[in-house]
Amino acid sequence: MSELITVNIDGKQCEAVEGEYILNVARANDIFVPAICYLTRCSPTLACRLCLVESNGKQVYACNAKVKDGMEITTTTENITKERKAIMEVYDVNHPLQCGVCDQSGECELQNYTLYMGVDKQDYAVKDVDRPTSNWGVMSYDPGLCIVCEKCVTVCKDMIGSNALSTVKRGADALDKQYKANMPKDAYAMWNKLNKNLIGFEEENCIDCGECISVCPVGALASTDFKYTTNAWELEKIPASNPYSSDCSLLYYEVKHKSVEENQVKKIYRVTNDSHYTSLSGAARFGFDYHNEVDAKDELEFKNAVDKFKNANTITFNSYITNEEAYILQKMKDELDINLVNEDALNYQNFLKNYSSITGKSLYNGTLKDVHNSNFVISVGTYFKSDAPSVRFAFNNAISMNKGAGLYFHPLNDKSVERFGKKGKTIETIFHAPMAEEAILYFILDQFATNLPEQISSYLESFREKRVKDVTETIKETIVEMVKDEETGEEKEVKKVVPKKVTTQVEYTYTKLLDVIGSDESLLETIEAMLAKKDTFSLVVGEDLYSHPKAQNIAKICGLIEKYTQFKIVIIPSSTNTLGVSQICELSPELSGNIVGYNVDASYQISALGDGSLDMPSLNQQEGTFVNIDKRLVPTNAALPYAGYTLNDIANEIFNDKKENTIDYTSELFQKVAFDDLENSFNNSMEETRGYILDSKDVTWNEIVTKLSEDKIEGTIIYNANPINQFNEFTASSLNLSKEKTALYVSSSMLEKLELSENDTVNIKTSNGDINLNVQIDNLLDGDIAYVPTFDKTIDTKKLFAGYRFTNANIKKV
Ligand code: SF4
Ligand code: SF4
Ligand code: FES
Q1: Which of 204, 211, 416 is the pocket-test mutation for ligand 2 (most atoms within 8 Å of CB)?
Q2: 122-162: per-residue pLDDT in tens?
Q3: Are the C-beta atoms of 275 and 211 separated by less than 8 Å?
Q4: Which of 204, 206, 216, 273 has most ligand 2 atoms within 8 Å of CB, for mutation?
Q5: Is the shortest distance between the CB of 416 and ligand 2 below 6 Å?
Q6: What pLDDT was estimated at residue 798?
Q7: Whose C-alpha lies nearest to ligand 1, atom 4?
Q8: Are the beta carbons of 777 and 726 closer than 8 angstroms?
Q9: Confidence (pLDDT) at 261
Q10: 160 CA → ligand 3 middle, Å
Q11: How far apart are CA 542 and CA 355, in angstroms?
Q12: Spacing, Cα 167 to ligand 1 middle (Å)
């Protein structure tokens, strides 16, 4: 545990955690230090040098110097002011005169600091070079505007894990020599570096998250769709929560009327975030354009819908709804005796119940922040290429920033994961056979647990055996050499220490669980090496496991890991509000009788997708709350108006207790706090003040687990994947988000093995169904498992799978 210390900044006594950067301590205490290039949660780039301060009489960079007890810090001195002003002058050299049309104008840090430092003349010059604009995936890069602060490079590496950006040579003339002699020292050093570089891009590694756009302090990186559409200062910022995945990250819908239409309805122009606190996935950032546009209330259909609900035996729905809506559905179940069916939330609910049956607590003990802060992190059951982006970011961030190490277990051989972390081997990827997840979790328990109940430790013991291995090490050996004295010609003995390789046999404990995982003793050695100086552990458990044929036992083993190891565990809710729904609704597996669907196909359907009999608002048209991955209830606000009926309107026709708005139910949820009393922000100390955290209740428990199953999936295997940046039918309806073709994706080696060519049409047949699809190569995929991604309602790839995301398939060219 780091110690609390006291430092003095500009005469103010500030409490701080030892080892924290001066800049963060200043910010937490409301003391302003100019800084352009520092990004909280990432490594300092030390590019701008604006954050110069004086600490105990010495000039240091506040974003890179750590506080020590009793430190005296001054944020402004005469010399520092001179340096900062020169830095801003240099940044303005050759900067194009296009503020009038630049997207960043009004929120540009170059504009702000130029004014703040009082730059009113230009003492510096260098010949400009041609710097043409490029289009990179979802964004465009204007190197003319780039100040090479490297924030984009840093966030892509330290947070996102893509490493798709780097500095490249600018090809400019060298700076005039006289500047080195006459300019303020730091300003010259900054300029000299800036003048040599620009930013380069590797498209194959980019996941189109747009986080680099978010961190860019100037207009150099901009969303191509947003560019030149509006002035930043005209936009109204509406705080909300990501409606597309269970991070439910704080985001802002930025809204204005449509510019050219007569009917001045509102439009979302962009989604932004404060990247010091949260990072957004591509779906959250760019998938804002879908909403359900409804002109008026359809009274006739509304009456019909009320009747359908009154006569329903089953309501089937998914987890893209608010807690308030889930609460209304549960009330309908209670009052009308209707079955509620939601496969995703039921799988998750069962998983959590089994988990809790071991831990004795209703919720898991970890949060995303724990993952960010850990230095040893394991992921099982998540395909990081397209599942749970915020967990991927936290996993990568932990390895990159905490001198951390990570183990990534997944059947799909995704080469992009190897880019996580810093240079050097800090991540071990274990691409195992499907169905081996149970053995993996037993293996983690075996390696890390202490004081396990006798029955479980003797079961794990049954897999162990003593083995010996050769260990070669280099020792220092003293040898004696005869050396001739050149003057006397006499020979004498001289002792010398030389390195010598010695091989010895050592005994070690092997576990046959490694055979089931498809690994060997080298994994034990890797883990041993990785564990040096590690003291904060987290395990993220993913979506593959909730529908696993052995989900019940897997959940229990995860519970044992929480109980008997130091790991903080996060059980990633598979959809936006899977956790909220699973805490509010009593769910059934069976569809029966009269079925009404909410956003799900049924004989009678109400839908926010515009494909039902009665329209409903989409999540960016509603106020309400979600329960996110951190077990936190967070509020979301409506960005766009909605003229039709809501689920609450239907409920008001059924219940005696009528509510004017859906959010009137918020105060009946969990901790009974009214919607208007929920905050949705972070403070300067990085503290999250969004909503509230759910209580983890005591539940009855026992420690009964079952033995390892020997079931396997053989033959050609396919995986039910999310498309990149897509999570549901709503993101699939977004025009902004690029669509992966619905196809069978294979590695080049698998394509060869199957004797197919790219673009062939194949018939894929499983025990559940069959479908014809086109074949595509995924260059970042290796190995023999193919995947099928889709949310295209016209292509039902889900019918190939019976719950578990892996199945064997017969693939034949058509
Ligand atoms: S593109 Fe933006 S964030 Fe990246 S180096 Fe240039 S100014 Fe900085
Ligand atoms: S969009 Fe995301 S992945 Fe692509 S370069 Fe930017 S930060 Fe990296
Ligand atoms: S913020 Fe410290 S060098 Fe830029």
Answers
A1: 211
A2: 999 999 999 999 999 889 999 999 999 999 999 999 999 99
A3: yes
A4: 206
A5: no
A6: 85
A7: 152
A8: no
A9: 64
A10: 21
A11: 14
A12: 10
Q: How confident is the model at residue 675 (pLDDT cuts 50, 70, 90)?
A: very high
Rg (CA), the chain: 30
Spatial distance between the Cα atoms of 441 and 188, rounded to a whole number of angstroms: 55
Residue type, 129: V
Share of the chain above pLDDT 70, in %: 99
Which one has a higher pLDDT value, 133 or 741?
Answer: 133
Ligand 1 contacts CB of residue 151 (under 6 A): yes
Q: Is 22 helix (H, G, I), strand (E, B) or coil?
A: helix
Amino acid letter at 599?
N
Contacts of 387 (CB under 8 A, 6+ apart): 542, 543, 572, 721, 722
Q: Flag whether pLDDT at 425 surpasses 70.
A: no
Mean pLDDT along residues 20-28: 96
| CA-to-CA separations, 353 to 251, 329, 341, 512, 564, in angstroms, rounded | 31, 21, 17, 29, 18
Contact between 185 and 84 under an 8 Å Cβ cutoff? The reply is no
Short-list 746, 730, 734, 631, CA closest to 690? 631
For the four alpha carbons of 83, 147, 158 and 243, in that order, the dihedral sign comes to: positive
| Residue 520, burial from CB neighbour count under 10 angstroms (0-12, 13-18, 19+) | exposed
221 lines ligand 1 (CB under 6 A): yes
* Binding site membership of 724 for ligand 2 (Cβ less than 6 Å): no
Q: Give me the pLDDT at residue 170, please.
A: 93
DSSP state of 160: I
Mean confidence (pLDDT) of the chain: 94
| Nearest CA among 557, 551, 538, 515 for reference residue 805 | 551
pLDDT at 1 over 60: no
Whether 777 contacts 746, CB under 8 Å: yes
| Alpha helical stretches, state H, 263-388 | 282-286, 299-310, 323-336, 343-359, 368-373
211 C-alpha to ligand 2 centroid (Å)? 6
Q: Which residue has the tokens 């590797």?
A: 202
Amino acid code (one letter) for 364? Y
pTM exceeds 0.90, yes or no: yes
